[in-house]
């Protein structure tokens, strides 16, 4: 068996003595089309920034300018990752808790606050 297949199979296997929870093993997909579009747009902007860095390197720009662009791309990707994570969390909480409209509004405010707090950490 190839090494890659062993890794895939071992990733699926539960730890010894532990039962498999099918619900917990299913990967979450982002179902909110607005959130998905926002994340894809952010990634496209970061992709453009990366192409710009490649061009800068090809054109022998200064390392300082290139470094500044690397920093900007890293920040853009970090904020995109954070946004995606908060969207997933909101989606999962709503699906599992089934909140009423007032609770959904409260949850949305709480998640926005959480996102702002976590953005300051990075």
List the helices and strands and how they pair.
Blueprint lengths: L2 H10 L9 H4 L7 H26 L4 H35 L3 H21 L1
Helix pairs in contact: 3-4, 4-5
Description:
The protein has one domain (31-121): Up-down Bundle (Methane Monooxygenase Hydroxylase, Chain G, domain 1), CATH 1.20.58. The protein has 5 helices and no strands. The chain is mainly alpha-helical and 122 residues long. The model is unreliable at 3-20 (pLDDT under 50). It starts with a helix and ends with a helix. The relative contact order is 0.09. 79% of the residues lie in helices and 0% in strands. The longest helix is centred in the middle third of the chain and has 35 residues, at 63-97.
How would you briefly describe this protein structure?
The chain is mainly alpha-helical. It has helices at residues 3-12, 22-25, 33-58, 63-97, 101-121.
